[in-house]
């Protein structure tokens, strides 16, 4: 069963008021839609201590409010590739509070933002470009027939004219035209 929020002081007052009014625990539970055990605990505490307040809990309060977290999310969405130090600096300038980068990291993690880097892709050498082109011709284009083969070869030739003519020279182009 999921945990519910803590009762507000008003709700605790309602329970005590209904109890003093002569209602049973079961009746109070049905009226307020609160579990019977919770109603019983509030009434027992009031009878023993004459108080319904909750004891303050240990732990430091959160530095950032919900509004601050939304502002931090807007800053991150503007540029996802910023470093944490830059995000922290922007965040501190936009609000009157000053937080450290560790707090920003922790908050971003709780919001679902994690540090990721783009994968570095190696540059393809000229020899590998040539090998790839011939592989495509041998494996893929060689199995096609008719008009489709003609269209694909024209696309390949246009690509070669635009991209590779300066790199491989005119002889390469003549060789490819003989193949077609």
Structure, briefly:
By secondary structure, the protein is mainly α. It is 65% helix and 0% strand.
Number of self-contained structural domains: 3
Please give the largest β-sheet. none
Number of strands: 0
Number of helical regions = 9
Q: Helix amount, in percent?
A: 55-70%
Assembly context of the chains: single chain
Unreliable residue runs: none
Mean pLDDT across the residues is 78
Q: What is the CA-atom radius of gyration, in angstroms? A: 35 Å
Kindly describe this structure.
α1 (9-20) packs across α3 (36-49) and α8 (146-168) runs antiparallel to α9. This protein has 180 residues and is mostly helical. It contains nine helices and no strands. The mean pLDDT is 78.
List keywords for this structure.
0% strand, 65% helix, 180 residues, 3 domains, mainly alpha
Give the topology.
Blueprint: H1 9-20, H2 25-32, H3 36-49, H4 66-78, H5 84-94, H6 101-111, H7 126-140, H8 146-168, H9 170-179
